[in-house]
């Protein structure tokens, strides 16, 4: 059942090293391409990193070397308006890529495309992990992968046969994310309940047990601006948020 598959997701951070064939990768990409795309722009590209030296460097730059070392395949998913620029040239026009709206469109396209890829991979028994750490060093990773203007890395993704699977992590209660007709700002009861759920999960899971809860994690995570270099990096790539 598709719902059972979706409800069983957990990130995999250690793989057995078995490599994916090109046939498998192409099949997963073709499946991912059937995701919805705003106005059919398909503003995504994927770099499959097969060069071992580049893979090692990518792992170091993204802060996840162990994942890349053991993965069966390693990717960087990118927002891509370069191809759309080429499409415009074929029609004799210069497209307008430099807008906040187009950045949002590209991010949404990549996310939908990647999630199709992930679901297809997990349906075949593979494990995956998204790696936002590529945004720690986006300029260096762009240089490493030869990404031109109007293309930027959004996240990495590793895939492979899991060496170990983690327990499924609980999610916020439905009442905290589903609003009917109007937005309800009263979260206190739901957040206290979710904290209790997460404290039980962290203290009882099979590895890396700890005492923690969700609101403390989020407060620590968002107490200051994260990755302030992103705005200037996007400007260098041609996105100045006009």
Automatic annotation (TrEMBL):
Where does this protein come from, organism-wise?
A: Metalysinibacillus jejuensis
Q: Which Gene3D superfamilies match?
A: NADH Oxidase
Q: Which superkingdom is the protein from?
A: Bacteria
Give the protein name, as stated in the record.
Oxygen-insensitive NADPH nitroreductase
What Pfam families is this protein classified in? Nitroreductase
Transport listed as a keyword? no
Q: Which CDD domains match?
A: NfsA-like
Q: Quick one: which gene encodes this?
A: nfsA
- What keywords were assigned to this record? Flavoprotein, FMN, NADP, Oxidoreductase
This protein's record includes keyword Oxidoreductase: yes
The residues covered by the Nitroreductase domain are 7-160
NCBIfam families, A to Z: PRK10765.1
UniProt cross-references to SUPFAM superfamilies, sorted A to Z: FMN-dependent nitroreductase-like
Please name the InterPro entries in this protein's record. Answer: Flavin_OxRdtase_Frp (IPR016446), Nitroreductase (IPR029479), Nitroreductase-like (IPR000415)
Tell me the protein family, please.
Answer: Belongs to the flavin oxidoreductase frp family.
The Gene Ontology terms for molecular function here are: oxidoreductase activity
PANTHER family to which the protein is assigned, alphabetical: NADPH-DEPENDENT OXIDOREDUCTASE, OXYGEN-INSENSITIVE NADPH NITROREDUCTASE
